[in-house]
Design brief:
Elements lengths: L6 H15 E2 L2 H4 L17 E2 L4 H13 L4 E4 L18 E4 L6 E5 L4 E5 L4 H9 L3 E2 L12 H6 L7 H4 L2 H4 E7 L5 E4 L12 H5 L8 E8 L1 E2 L3 E9 L2 H15 L3 E8 H10 L13 E9 L2 H17 L5 E4 L3 H12 L1 H8 L3 E6 L5 H15 L4 E7 L4 E7 L6 H22 L15 H7 L2 H14 L13
Parallel strand pairs: 2-4, 3-4
Antiparallel strand pairs: 1-2, 5-6, 6-10, 7-11, 8-9, 8-10, 12-14, 12-15, 13-14, 16-18, 17-18
Helix pairs in contact: 1-3, 9-11, 10-13, 14-15
Length: about 475
């Protein structure tokens, strides 16, 4: 059972970390006690900002001895309240932002050892200086940190080719709930010493260990890319096009995103200096990107396959970006959907995955299921069809107070969405995690076997419940 830190404990932590690493000033802590979406607000007795793994270990040891809970936090850019403490004020917020060193980038092995507080965009820039890249990107790259990305097993727009964060993590360094340091940074291809703690910590949302550094896989910097925007009749057409391109082009297919016209229309209305890539209006669009060594080969492959798909009736129109600027313009349309949606009014977001071949069925059937139960609601899906992951957002009826309506009906509405996802063998969280937002829904809807295993692992590694209480499984 955890308890509020005593004055003696706080004084010891202040001496350990010094003025740069310890604050109990409410104004200094305030920006970090509310989640990125402004949905969750918490309190903390103090905010701790250790600068080294050894300092993290010392903090954890002291807190374990005094039964004080810790809430780890990286860039505070999460979507499910996973890095926000509760309102009791008994927990301590542990920020990894001062641990921001890129320890090494090895061009020969194409690995980087990176501390938890390194911002994703800074890693991108550093890797490029060595002719390499870290092949994971997302809209929050300017604030998201490596520790948070590891802890949530983040995804993004390049998962189709390179996988989620778990696939890119070759090693982890972390502090466990007893204060011991797990040094698993060595990028071993073979290691059969039982349970894979690296994979266990990746996606654990800070409930099993505090990630302090990671060994990450890099790939050669892209020499060339080709980007296309296509007009389509339906998600099923998009799925068939995806399968065709995947078979014909394979490993060079790096991105495949689907976008309904309603999303594009909102972006064009709310985001300055945007324009539609195609002259016609189509129910759906697919944003496709290839990456490889030779531009001529990419261009030939993309033009050949899209021309063939056009002749086969899989798509209705297509434009291929002539240069990087046009590619960035296409991606800006995709990346601006969430901002445009906020301008449209309140909505409830669902980050879900189902098997790729079942995604068109979900997209087609779920809006009607919702409308049958909640007349007037509007559902839209967009995102990573190639990964079987879409962002399924539901807007309230137009003639109501949107915020009040969602407050009253949002939980029941989400239960319908998630029940449909589970029915199709999917997951209620594809890339954002569970946090506190989906914790109760996970406990209600997911497999009893999975839940029992998660709870058993948590009880075994953190029996006192010191790390990130109230998240993931409670």
């Amino acid at each position: 059972m955890t308890r509020a830190p005593s004055v003696t404990t706080l004084d010891a932590l202040a001496r350990l970390l010094g003025p740069k690493g310890f604050t109990a000033d409410p104004d200094a802590m305030a920006p970090w006690l509310t989640d990125w979406r402004g949905k969750y607000h918490g309190a903390a007795a103090a905010m701790l900002s250790p600068a080294t793994t050894e300092e993290v270990a010392a903090v954890v040891t002291l807190c374990a001895e005094n039964d004080v809970a810790l809430v780890p936090q990286g860039g505070n850019s999460g979507m499910v309240g996973g890095a926000t403490p509760d309102e009791s004020g008994n927990a301590l917020l542990l920020s990894t932002r001062r641990m921001n060193h890129i320890r090494i980038i090895d061009e020969a092995t194409q690995f980087a050892i990176v501390e938890a507080g390194v911002i994703l965009e800074h890693l991108h820039e550093a890797a490029l200086e060595h002719g390499l890249r870290f092949p994971l990107t997302l809209g929050g790259k300017g604030s998201a940190t490596i520790g948070g990305l590891v802890s949530t097993n983040a995804g993004g727009t390049q998962v189709l080719r390179h996988g989620t964060m778990r696939a890119l993590v070759a090693g982890i360094e972390a502090v466990l709930p007893d204060g011991s340091i797990f040094d698993g940074l060595a990028p071993l291809k073979k290691d059969n010493r039982g349970y894979d703690l690296r994979h266990l910590l990746c996606g654990a949302e800070g409930t099993l260990g505090i990630v302090t550094a990671a060994c990450l896989r890099l790939v050669p910097a892209v020499a060339a890319r080709r980007t296309a925007w296509t007009g389509l009749e339906s998600p099923e057409s998009a799925r068939r096009l995806l399968r065709r391109l995947d078979t014909a082009i394979g490993g060079e297919l790096e991105g495949f995103e689907i976008i309904p016209h309603s999303c594009l229309d909102a972006v064009l209305r709310h985001i300055p200096q945007t324009r539609a890539p195609l002259s016609g209006v189509y129910p759906w669009y697919a944003l496709i990107e290839l990456a490889g060594e030779r531009e001529e080969a990419l261009d030939s492959a993309l033009q050949t396959e899209l021309t063939s798909a056009l002749e086969a009736g899989l798509l209705d129109d297509v434009v291929i970006a002539k240069n990087d600027r046009e590619s960035e313009d296409f991606w800006r349309l995709r990346d601006s959907i969430s901002e445009a949606e906020r301008a449209e009014g309140p909505a409830i977001q669902h980050d879900i995955s189902v098997p790729v071949d079942l995604m068109p069925a979900f997209i087609g059937e779920n809006p009607q299921r919702l409308a049958n139960a909640f007349p007037g609601v509007r559902a839209l899906s967009f995102g990573h069809l190639g990964d079987g992951n879409v962002h399924h957002h539901v807007q309230p009826p137009v003639d109501v107070d949107g915020k009040a309506w969602l407050a009253e009906h949002g939980e029941a509405l989400s239960r319908l969405v998630y029940s449909h996802v589970i029915e199709l063998g999917g997951s209620i969280s594809a890339e954002h995690g569970i946090g506190q937002m989906k914790r109760d829904m996970l406990a209600e809807l997911d497999s009893p076997a999975r839940l029992a295993a998660l709870r058993g692992i948590k009880a075994g590694l953190d029996p006192a419940g010191l790390f990130n209480p109230g998240k993931l499984i409670g």
